[in-house]
Amino acid sequence: MLSLLTLCPPFVILLWYTMVHADGSVYQTWDYFMQHGLQGFNNIWPKPTAVAWKIIACFAAFEAVLQLFLPGKRVEGPISPAGNRPVYKANGLAAYAVTLITYLSLWWFGIFNPAIVYDHLGEIFSALIFGSFVFCIFLYIKGHLVPSSTDSGSSGNIIIDFYWGMELYPRIGKNFDIKVFTNCRFGMMSWAVLAVTYCIKQYEENGKVADSMLVNTTLMLVYVTKFFWWEAGYWNTMDIAHDRAGFYICWGCLVWVPSVYTSPGLYLVNHPVNLGIQLALFILVAGIVCIYVNYDCDRQRQEFRRTNGKCLIWGKAPSKIVASYTTTNGETKSSLLLTSGWWGLSRHFHYVPEILAAFCWTLPALFNHFLPYFYVVFLTILLFDRAKRDDDRCRSKYGKYWKLYCDKVPYRIVPGIY
Predict the structure, then answer these.
(1) Angle, CA of 236, 242 and 246, to the nearest 5°
(2) Which spans are transmembrane here (predicted)?
(3) What is the pLDDT of residues 88-144, one digit of tens each?
(4) What domain count does the chain have?
């Protein structure tokens, strides 16, 4: 935890500097530090500026207003370990559409040039690093003094509490859910906004957009669109329903997502690649197929839960295991574990197309440098770790029923391999 707390912030700046000022070459950055030492790092770290703070504040305020005031369907989340059931307003897709339309309109009518965001990107990332760290301190203090629900508590270790978080469902007032804002409306929304920004910047610089950038931007936007289409389902996942609001989730979504997840597009701004129609279409179609399979995996599980197992999976009645478990307050409840469809191939098969989709929107950068593929490597490590944590949690929750499930679906992620 201490390693991540101390190393992640400077890595964000190193990644930005290497992509923008060192031609995407890790070797060039390494050579720079060999010549200038630690002082060199101080030289390249951009200082937060008033422009950066204004851009962040306007974006955050705009998304907060949309989250609070756009109409949306009332959605209930899963019952928490302490017996609480969070209630959300599902207006993410509307907020996503309003955000992109507004951003593109500001550019089209000459009111605001998104290239300014790119030009001040280092300062924006620097401001986000410090501002989000302060925000996490606020969450730590809030969790101690005024928790929003009984799903909160301290481990007794300040580092663990700060890193993992104090509260499961922190809110400001009754309606403003902090994790929905950090994870969805700031983190995922900034991914889409920056993808469009990089595309516009390349157009402003070169008078055209390379097919490689078009493929990268299109696939990332399709993925983020899928996310907001399925946002209510995301509220049932480990990020929201099990991981507390601390540095890991909140700083990660506020800083790591906009900086690292968008990095393949950032590289392509100054490295346009001409793929040709055939290769571009092949990568585009392959990426869209991967994103669809990832969506269909989540759709199958969501439909299975919604109908209490009374649905069709690949045209047949689903196979399942009825698992009982005991809650923290001593109640005995049951859950259905799906063992057919995509979920019969492996226990976390949906991670396979997600990793492959990330590879597809990075592939337009080709293989001149390794760094554009850092996100794919990071995502693979993240999802493999998440699969293990989820398995450990389910093993503890379901006991013998989880063993039955693992016997029926023996592979954790990759069918036949792992």
Answers:
(1) 120
(2) 51-72, 93-112, 124-141, 245-269, 275-295
(3) 999 999 999 999 999 999 999 999 999 999 999 999 999 999 999 999 999 999 999
(4) 2
C-alpha neighbours within 13 Å on the C-beta side of residue 382: 19
pLDDT higher than threshold 90 for residue 347: yes
**Runs of H (alpha helix) within 230-350:** 231-234, 238-241, 263-269, 277-306, 342-345
Q: If you count them, how many residues does the chain have?
A: 418
Residue-wise pLDDT for 287-298, tens only, equals 999 999 999 999
155 and 16 share one domain: yes
Q: How far apart are CA 125 and CA 99, in angstroms?
A: 20
Count of Cβ atoms closer than 10 Å to residue 66 Cβ: 19
Helix (H/G/I), strand (E/B), else coil: 164: helix
Strands 171-172 and 176-177: antiparallel
> DSSP readout, 249-266?
IIIIIIIIIIIIITHHHH
- Structural domain containing residue 376: 275-418
What residue type is 4 in one-letter code?
A: L
Burial of 207 (0-12, 13-18, 19+ CB in 10 A): exposed
User: Which pLDDT score is estimated for 227?
Assistant: 95
Q: What is the mean pLDDT of the chain?
A: 94
Q: Do 260 and 310 sit in the same domain of this protein?
A: no
Residues 6+ apart with CB under 8 A from 385: none
User: Tell me, what's the pLDDT at 29?
Assistant: 94
Q: Which of 298, 303, 265, 283 has the alpha carbon at shortest distance from 356?
A: 283
Of 274, 302, 329, the position where a domain reaches its end is 274
Is the confidence at residue 81, as pLDDT, over 80?
A: no
pTM across the whole model: 0.92
CA distances from 223 to 128, 220, 232 (A): 24, 5, 15
Residues 267 and 290 in one domain: no
User: Is the Cβ–Cβ distance between 198 and 261 less than 8 Å?
Assistant: no
216 and 358 assigned to the same domain: no
